[in-house]
Amino acid sequence: MNRFAYGAIALFLIPFPPLHAQNPAIDELKGKIFDARMAQQTFVNGFRFCNELDGTNFYYQPRNRVLKLEEYHRSLENLARAQVYNSETRRPWSSQEANDRWEEVKKQAQADKEKCELVQSLPELEKRLQELQKNTAASEKKE
């Protein structure tokens, strides 16, 4: 990792100074917020497609576009059937390789959907965290 990456990670940790006694709910929210911010940085090009990333499509980073799962599946089957050269394995596509790739992109489609949902929930997560911290601080002052 380079210095920029370490600096970016450190910035995420700074806004949340620990309270006297941490609440598990606060810790969980902080974890979700951290995950959302990291997703926001690592998936930056894919977020403009979030309205399409509903689990039936996936973000194809090399071409910076969204592909439909079913169309991609048909393409994989055709590659295997025609035994087109696979540059990754340096041999023709096999049915097993096509099936393996199909399983990967199905998982990727779900992960892309989850990233979008997580980042879209970031403002609400931050609001809930502030409320929880405020309530925790108020209850600690009463004690």
Task: Give a structural overview.
- There is one protein chain.
- The chain is mainly alpha-helical and 143 residues long.
- The protein has one domain.
- The chain is 64% helix and 8% strand.
- It contains 5 helices and 4 strands.
- The chain has helices at residues 3-13, 24-42, 69-82, 95-120, 122-142, and strands at residues 57-60, 65-68, 85-86, 91-92.
- The strands form 2 sheets. The chain has a two-stranded antiparallel ribbon with strand order 1-2.
- A hairpin with a 4-residue loop joins β3 and β4.
- α2 (24-42) runs antiparallel to α5 and α3 (69-82) runs antiparallel to α4 (95-120).
- 12% of the residues are buried.
- The mean pLDDT is 85.
Quick description:
The protein has 143 residues and is mainly alpha-helical.
The helix-strand sequence is HHEEHEEHH
Query: Which range does the strand content fall in?
Result: 5-15%
| Fraction in helix | 55-70%
Sheet with most strands: strand arrangement = 1-2
Low-confidence stretches: none
- What's the shape? elongated
Whole-angstrom Rg: 21 Å
